[in-house]
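Anyone up for a design puzzle?
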């Protein structure tokens, strides 16, 4: 198989990365994709950095064996804790979700007061404040991070609207309202499924940044620079691999991807 006809690997701890895959398929309709959801070990946000790095390396190793030409780390926690390690270990382009999302947030913010919600591990890593300040240069900005650990299981259970979701999100976001932010980064790929509920609760002037589109544009740029973009092809269904409950993934995943998911392959690492 010619190098540019090989698939692109995309992985997340569970379902959330499907929001990134959806934008990748929209921006790069000719490309082939393999998606890996580590559904047996979700969520990553409460795991130690060492564990997240080990899990992430196992998945990339699996994808490399599938002959992928690049990997998209469609998980904020893995991007925060494992991206540097992955780039050092594997000889293919690897793109995370943090830097594209941070760059988009800076473009959208007028006041420079930017909020981030994410898993405990992502917020604790300080990867977003570090990245935002590096990209901002001399521009003064203030960054306010908030761990929202209940939101991933909420989305995984399909509870993205209604009184329970409203109550939890309102309780979390009260602190950020008081910080007078003008941009809120959805620092987890699960969170776009809660976008409508968050939008109803937040001040309408606060811009929500979902990094999925920015990531897709970054991947397009990486493919072009490395001469890896597919030259000819038609839109094909992605291959899906999970580590637990393939039927649940198929049912819930269709809501994330917004298209039918047929075959899901169950694999075991342990």
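Challenge accepted. My sequence:
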């Amino acid at each position: 198989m010619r190098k540019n006809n090989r698939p692109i690997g995309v992985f997340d701890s569970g379902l959330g990365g499907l929001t990134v895959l959806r934008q990748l398929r929209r921006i790069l309709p000719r490309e082939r994709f393999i998606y890996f959801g580590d559904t047996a070990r979700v969520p990553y946000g409460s795991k130690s950095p060492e564990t997240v790095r080990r899990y992430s390396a196992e998945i990339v190793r699996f994808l490399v064996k599938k002959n992928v030409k690049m990997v998209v780390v469609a998980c904020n926690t893995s991007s925060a804790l494992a991206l540097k390690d992955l780039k050092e270990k594997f000889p293919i382009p690897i793109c995370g979700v943090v830097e594209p999302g941070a760059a988009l947030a800076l473009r959208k913010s007028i006041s420079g007061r930017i909020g981030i919600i994410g898993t405990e591990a992502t917020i604790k890593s300080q990867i977003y404040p570090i990245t935002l300040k590096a990209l901002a240069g001399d521009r003064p900005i203030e960054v306010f991070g908030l761990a929202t650990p209940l939101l991933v299981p909420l989305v995984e259970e399909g509870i993205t609207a209604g009184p329970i979701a409203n109550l939890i999100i309102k309780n979390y976001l009260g602190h950020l309202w008081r910080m007078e932010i003008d941009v809120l980064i959805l620092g987890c790929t699960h969170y776009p499924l809660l976008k409508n509920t968050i939008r109803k609760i937040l001040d309408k002037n606060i811009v929500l940044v979902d990094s999925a589109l920015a990531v897709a544009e970054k991947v397009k740029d990486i493919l072009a620079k490395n001469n890896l973009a597919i030259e000819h092809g038609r839109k094909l269904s992605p291959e899906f691999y999970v580590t637990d409950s393939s039927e649940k993934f198929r049912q819930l995943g269709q809501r994330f991807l917004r298209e039918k998911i047929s075959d899901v392959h169950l694999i075991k690492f342990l």
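A detail worth pointing out: The two ends are 31 Å apart (CA to CA).
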